[in-house]
Design a protein that fits this description.
The protein has 309 residues and is α+β, with helices and mostly antiparallel strands. It folds into three domains: 107 residues, Aspartate Aminotransferase, domain 1, CATH 3.90.1150.200; 104 residues, Aspartate Aminotransferase, domain 1, CATH 3.90.1150.200; 62 residues, no CATH class. It is 38% helix and 19% strand. The strands form two sheets. A six-stranded antiparallel beta sheet has the order 1-2-3-4-6-5. Strands 7-8-9-10-12-11 form a six-stranded antiparallel beta sheet. A hairpin with a 2-residue loop joins strand 7 and strand 8. Helix 5 crosses helix 6 and helix 9 packs antiparallel against helix 10. The longest helix is centred in the first third of the chain and has 17 residues.
């Protein structure tokens, strides 16, 4: 079966009523986020807006919505009627699609992502056309699915990220998401961010002439085998974020505000911390702190205005 590369192909797999349901979900998301783009991510219909806005998929007995863990945590009180997990919501097929709730989930993620800057991975592609062509020829010989994630093409096997590539100003790179498990017989793989990157490894080239398709294919076949063998590094649970800088100073100087902040859920605290930390200029941080003070004292989260209308 050919790989699904767009939402129309995904929907065409199903019979009439199920097609209509998927088109209904698609239309609601498109209407709520007209600036978003459609693609296939994680083998599911996906809307992107400076990141993954929402995925959806149809199963035998339910529709799956995947807005991310932050959105699910934020709307947990309104999701009690549905089965949920960390990143998924299951809507039984014998129930109506909750369009109002779907719109809230999408608007919440738009608000969360709108200040996020998106790297332009294709800015230098023109100077690396020969390198890209060489790598793509090898990729197309292997049983990999192409998906669009994080602003770039990612090749997957059985739903697991295997490899991606990109041209940069001074080099061309192929990166293996599970590269830490590769034998690296030619001693070519490097860690791009020492101390931060655990599994990913890069292979860098200064010119297209350095790319040997036979060697690349060998590394890719080994990378596919790591997926088959189930090799992966389990993500470590991140430590709870703590206020810093101006926010920490403001809380320390206002006892009532500090107590109100401490009563908030970890998710709401994280929203406020990231909102302040994302501001680059001090005057912007100050303005944002003044904006959130009354919300914190009322026990509200940053995005609660999207929770109930």
């Amino acid at each position: 079966m050919a790989a699904i590369t767009n939402i129309d192909q995904y929907i065409a797999q199903f019979e009439g009523k199920k097609q209509a349901l998927l088109q209904e979900v698609r239309a609601t998301i498109a209407r709520t986020a007209p600036e978003a783009t459609e693609t296939i991510g994680y083998q599911m219909p996906t809307f992107r807006y400076k990141g993954n806005l929402i995925h959806f998929a149809l199963y035998k007995h339910h529709l799956g919505l995947y807005p991310g863990s932050e959105a699910i945590d934020h709307f947990k009180e309104e999701l009690t009627a549905y089965k949920t997990s960390k990143g998924a919501i299951q809507i039984p097929l014998d129930q109506k699609i909750p369009h109002a709730l779907l719109e809230k989930l999408v608007r919440f993620n738009i608000e969360r992502l709108q200040h996020k800057s998106v790297p332009d991975w294709k800015r230098h592609h023109a100077q690396w056309e020969d390198a890209i062509e060489k790598v793509q020829q090898v990729l197309h010989e292997l049983p990999l699915d192409r998906e669009f994630k994080w602003g770039s093409d990612v090749y997957t096997y059985q739903g697991k990220n295997v490899v991606s590539y990109g041209g940069f100003k001074n080099h061309f790179a192929i990166w293996f998401y599970n590269g830490v498990f590769l034998e690296d017989r030619d001693n070519v793989l490097i860690t791009a961010s020492e101390g931060k990157t655990k599994a990913l490894r890069q292979w860098r080239f200064q010119s297209a002439d350095e790319i040997d398709p036979i060697k690349i294919k060998s590394y890719l076949q080994e990378a596919i085998q790591t997926v088959i063998d189930g090799k992966e590094i389990k993500p470590e649970k991140s430590a709870r974020k703590q206020p810093s800088g101006l926010l920490k100073e403001t809380l320390s100087n206002d006892t009532s505000l500090q107590k109100a902040f401490e009563k908030l859920s970890p998710g709401k605290q994280k929203e406020y911390i990231e909102y302040i930390n994302s501001a680059k200029q001090e005057k912007t941080k100050i303005a944002r702190i003044e904006k959130i003070k009354p919300l914190i004292k009322e026990g509200k989260g940053l995005h609660d205005k999207y929770k109930r209308q």
